[in-house]
Write a structure and sequence with these properties.
2 copies of one chain form a homodimer.
Chain A: H1 2-22, H2 27-43, H3 45-58, H4 64-70, H5 74-89, E1 97-102, E2 108-115, E3 118-123, H6 128-139, E4 143-147, H7 153-170, E5 177-179, H8 186-191, E6 200-204, H9 207-216, E7 229-233, H10 239-251, E8 260-266, H11 267-283, E9 287-290, H12 292-295, E10 302-303, H13 306-309, E11 317-323, H14 326-336, E12 341-345, H15 349-358, E13 363-368, E14 386-387, E15 395-396, E16 403-414
Parallel strand pairs in A: 3-4, 3-6, 4-5, 7-8, 7-12, 8-11, 9-10, 9-11, 12-13
Antiparallel strand pairs in A: 1-2, 2-16, 14-15
Helix pairs in contact in A: 2-5, 2-7, 3-7, 5-6, 6-7, 10-11
Chain lengths: 417, 417
Amino acid sequence: MKIHMSNVLEQAQAAKKAWRILRRVDTASKNKFLSELERLLRAHMSDVLAANTRDLTDNPALSSSMRRRLTLSEESLTAMADGVRAIAELPDPVSEVIDSRTRPDGLRIERVRLPIGVIAAIFESRPNIIIDIAALAVKSGNAAIVRGGKEAMYSNDALYALIREALEIAGLPHDVIQQLTDRRHEAVAELVKLDTYVDLAIPRGGENLVRNVIDHARMPVIHHMRGMCHLYIDAAADIEKAIAITVNAKTSNPATCNSVESILIHTAVADTLLPRLIAALRERGVEIHGCPRTCAKDTECIPATEEDWATEYLDLKVSMKVVDSFEEALAHIERYSSGLTDGIITDNANSAEAFFRAIDSACVLVNASNRLVDGAQFGLGGEIGISTSRIHMRGPMGLADLTTPAYRVYGNGHLRM
Amino acid sequence: MKIHMSNVLEQAQAAKKAWRILRRVDTASKNKFLSELERLLRAHMSDVLAANTRDLTDNPALSSSMRRRLTLSEESLTAMADGVRAIAELPDPVSEVIDSRTRPDGLRIERVRLPIGVIAAIFESRPNIIIDIAALAVKSGNAAIVRGGKEAMYSNDALYALIREALEIAGLPHDVIQQLTDRRHEAVAELVKLDTYVDLAIPRGGENLVRNVIDHARMPVIHHMRGMCHLYIDAAADIEKAIAITVNAKTSNPATCNSVESILIHTAVADTLLPRLIAALRERGVEIHGCPRTCAKDTECIPATEEDWATEYLDLKVSMKVVDSFEEALAHIERYSSGLTDGIITDNANSAEAFFRAIDSACVLVNASNRLVDGAQFGLGGEIGISTSRIHMRGPMGLADLTTPAYRVYGNGHLRM
């Protein structure tokens, strides 16, 4: 027990020490790391895939959605390498001046982006996360201690070996990106108590994983807990767009947090829309849990219970409700949304603006699929997580979001009077 | 005990409910609150001063610096009213668009400022804080639950009565700004566990107060713990500016966190500068704890111990060290700074830029007094605190910093491919 605790502490101390070097490293060295990581990912696909096969073989009891998230392929590894290149091509956010003001007495005050420090990243299943974190963290001048799920152990080890090699070739301190070596469950709680060395915790995974980090962390935590996402189809919606967007938002990858779970339909378009929308969803195997007015249009509709309005299915299921007004839709979303992403389909610009003002979610969309809420889709060079936290930023957390505005003050003998 | 716990919970719930209304209130109503608060502050000075006298009488054992922070006057009340007016005159940060990008496929992605939510503000002594918090929170669309020190109870109650009256006149829900009614010490820990209702904790005060909030908080905490601030006088410093800035940074209000505590002097200017600087500081009653080379210039100099380099005196005391190089100064600051504000005096622009790149503090200054690090001095309309936290922002936390960037996405039938 004692020796484990000291490993966690030693890793955190080593990360902070390495960070003090990294935060001042020039852009060229950081991009060298990224180009090497990209090259190694493309060159060592078979090693990584062999490790991934071992994880899949060793964990036969995983659910099908866990299995899907864990499985790597040449395509997904190519996408990872492409993502690393995209991050290399983005401008270095460190020292970027985001605001400059000159006071009446001539004092010039600039706001510049500085790296956060050491990030503890705790995640499950999807092995691409370790690459996203390493690439985004290094480019933004941050160190990271990563802890993946044990079901992805061999995959993460294989990918981490490439990260270490790329760090070495680029001449960067290898402690900048570390895997937490202590595999005990308690090691996570120990790590996130070390606020002298770790500056931010980012948990990505199920509610238990996120709650465990929040309960123990002494440093800030950026996270999202659930993706209870809505689409509201307004009285002024274009019916074709509404059907295409809803089908995409529900069925393009139902296991992801940005998939829509609940659809609200204005009564004015219900008669025209509902039969076609239900048929389109049904064609893709979606199970519909509907309000009485929805079920009146569809014999296979399962009557929705109170629980359905609050359920994140993460599956080919959806809840549907006909509402009498825009205000009813807003009230429903305010009550049930998890604050990740909610959208409206409307051709009425005033309704869109009213929806934007009323809905407090991290990402609010008009006439676009909720599934577009993603760092790469937003052009942020991937994402280190999606935040529904209330400070720092909300939504997909990209490269620049791994920095914090600080002040630089230029005087000429200025005093406080 | 039970009833207290339920009070804290009820207050947090009421704050969240009131916030849901406030976050959508128009700028005019928020400014109406501010103009009424300003008017009431000017009209009720004698009531507030009587309450303040009672606090001072009831707490005869306070230290002189605590007493100074607690004492109100017509001047300080006028400054508070002026501060409220300054906040009224600033643009409303809510819904401000801070970034807009259009993706190759035409999807438009905006980043807009949204209110944080409910803020728990825990502070000591200085009764002006309750007014700063109320004014900044309401203007930025945030609710706040405030807990002042018991030594300022009557002053805070008198000021809070004005806040309540101004909320009422402006037609805003009165639960938007609440004082924590439970006066037990434990009530603070209970409040900051309620992360369902409270979104951010801002403790302002001594290390015990801040540590207590960090240890118990389930939501993010923005704070600064200490103000171990440095001034480095470079080889290329202008001697006159160096003396004026150092004297101002040390003596203009030594009890404040942005006062300088440690001065580093490049050996190249030590012979010219030290005798004059020591004389100027001595004239204002400053006790000097110096390195051997400093003490060689001054018979009254107290030899500095290792502890001195890490001590935030908050008093008319300063530590002084002659360094052989720019790099030695950087290493000293990296080792001992609390990360709040460190400055350089130099006429060499390259040295200033190198200092900016090397020093990781919330506010880094060139040729300006550390005492200028302040929300009002920076033109932010006052401050709700000063942050050395590693996310969200660093330095004086003003009006716009009480919002968080969120996404608005404008599509035209856009799908995830």
